Amino acid sequence: MNNAVIVDAVRTPLAKGKPGGAYAEIHPVDLHAHALRAIVDRTGIDPAAIDDVISGAVGQVGEQSGNTARWALLAAGYPESVPGVTVDRQCGSSQQALHFAAQGVIAGAYDVAVASGVESMSRIPIGSQFAGKDFFGPQVQARYEGRLVPQGISAELIARKWGLSRAELDEYSALSHERAARAWKDGLLDSQVAFVNELRTDETIRPGTTADVLAGLRPAFYSEEWAAAYPELDWRITAGNSSPVNDGAAAVLVTSEDAAARLGLRPRARVHSFAVVGDDPVLMLTGIIPATRKVLERAGLTLADIDAFEVNEAFASVVLAWQKETGADLDKVNVNGGAISIGHPLGASGARLATSLVNVLEQRGGRYGLQVMCEAGGLANATIIERV
C-alpha cells in the first residue's frame, strides 16, 4: 500500500464575500486558478504529471457551475491532458477532495493529485444553488416532522444543549481574532499564502476585538417564527460569534512517496487517517464529535497524541461543544485563528484548514495534527496528518 504525502499546501488570503470585498471583481475560476498556479510555482512540479485535480465548491451554480475544477486548471495554464472534478460535501467539500486525492494515491490509482477548493460568496451568494426550492423532499420532511432548520438555529440549539453562555461564545470569538491578528503580525501565515492583488491579510480579521465589543451585537437568527417554534432558546448566536462569508481558494499537492522521490519533491506531511460520519441533521453541526472519535480509533491514536487541531469555526458553539465532549486542550485548537476571524469560504475551507495544519505542525515541532469540519445535513469529515 502506498503512503499519501502532502508536498505543499497554499491558500489565498480570504476576502469579504460581499460587494466591495477585495475579490468581488474576480471570477471564481480565476481565483481558483491562482491557488492552482501557486502550488505548481512553489513546488516546481510539471503540471503534466498531475493525474487529477479534485476540487470542492458549494455554490455550484452560475460562475461556479459546469465542473469549475476543469476550467480553473485550464485557467491556471495546466495542460489540456489534466482532468478535473468538482465535489460537494457542503462545507467539507475540499477536505473531501483531500480524502479522495489521498485515497487515490493509497490505492495506486494516482501518483500525483491536487486537492483544492474555491468559493466566491460575493459573486455566488450563499444558498444560490437552491433557487428557492425545497431540496429536502417530502419524505425527508416527513421523517423529521418539519424539524429541519437553518444552520443558525442549529448553532443556537447546540449552545443550549451544551450550556454555552453568550459570554463564552463571545470570549472564544475574540480569541480567534486575537490569534489570527497575532499570527499575521508575527509572519506565521506568510509562507502559506499566495497573495492576490493588493490584499495582504485576511480581510475579516478584526484586530483589537474584545468580548465586550462582541457582547453589543444583536442575535443574528432571531425571528418571531423561530422564537415561537423554539421558545426555550435565548438567542446567543450573533454575527460576531459566527463565521463571516468569504471569497478564497486553496490547493494541496498530494503524491505517493515514490512519485515525490522520482520528481525531486520533499514531502511535508503524510495523510495518516481519515473518516467521514453522518449525524443528526437537526443539530446538524455536531458530527465533528463522532468524526473525531472515529478517526482517532482508525489511526490507533488518542487525543493526547494530537499536537494541533484545526476545528472549523462555523460558529463558536460548534467548537466549544466539541471541546466539552472530547476534552481537547483549547491551547492546541486553531492556534493561528480560525474561521470566525480568518473566514469561511465554504468550498475552500477544508483545504485551508489542511494548509494551516501543516504549517502549525512545522512551527511547533508537532507530529500529529487533526482537522475536522462540520457540514450541512449532519455530516463531518476528519483527517489526521503526520509531519514528516
From TrEMBL:
Keywords: Acyltransferase, Transferase. The keyword Calcium does not apply. The keyword Acyltransferase applies. It comes from the Bacteria. Transmembrane segments: none annotated. GO terms for molecular function: acetyl-CoA C-acyltransferase activity. Gene3D superfamilies: 3.40.47.10. It is an enzyme of class 2 (transferase). InterPro entries: Thiolase, Thiolase-like, Thiolase_C, Thiolase_CS, Thiolase_N. Its EC number is 2.3.1.16. PANTHER family: ACETYL-COA C-ACYLTRANSFERASE (PTHR43365:SF1), BLR7806 PROTEIN (PTHR43365). Belongs to the thiolase-like superfamily. Thiolase family. This is Acetyl-CoA acetyltransferase. It comes from Nocardioides simplex. The lineage of its organism: Bacteria, Bacillati, Actinomycetota, Actinomycetes, Propionibacteriales.
